Amino acid sequence: METNKNFCHFILDPDNTDNEVFAAGCDSVITVVEKPVSADKGKIACEEYVASGYGTLTRILPPTAIPLPPGTQITFTSKDSNTPCTMVESNGRAYKSYKWQSTIKVDNLKKGLVKVTYELLCELDLEQ
Q1: What is the pLDDT of residue 88?
Q2: Structural domain total, the chain
Q3: 71 class by beta-carbon count within 10 Å (0-12 exposed, 13-18 middle, 19+ buried)
Q4: Distance of CA 13 to the CA centre of its chain
Q5: Cα atoms in the Cβ-side hemisphere of radius 13 Å centred on 2
Q6: Mean pLDDT for each consecutive 10-residue tract of the chain (128 residues)?
Q7: pTM for the full model?
Q8: CA 28 to CA 5: how far, in whole Å?
Q9: 1 belongs to a structural domain
Q10: What 3-state DSSP class applies to 17?
Q11: Is the alpha carbon torsion for 113, 19, 31, 100 positive or negative?
């Protein structure tokens, strides 16, 4: 997810994360915090930061605009893929989390349209 252009990627295949949906307008939120330092290590001169992030988007589309059939919901997590969730601030600084969840839900609507809800959660990853 990128805050600069309000852009998110939602994966369709955990084995090939280039198989994805790109969506602008996901209103992503990235929260950056200083990584806690254990008491025995003391404070270090170079601060380390970690981030968590969330983005969601709902769109009404023709069924041909999404490669999933109506009534489908797929959820992938970091347990399904070794690829990290990368969060990019507006200044270009990137943070990675190896704890994430990506969900795409397709609901059937009347008049030949579907409602697609995309959701991406990158959790705070203190172990990286």
Answers
A1: 92
A2: 1
A3: exposed
A4: 14
A5: 10
A6: 84 84 88 77 66 94 91 94 90 92 92 93 82
A7: 0.83
A8: 10
A9: no
A10: coil
A11: positive
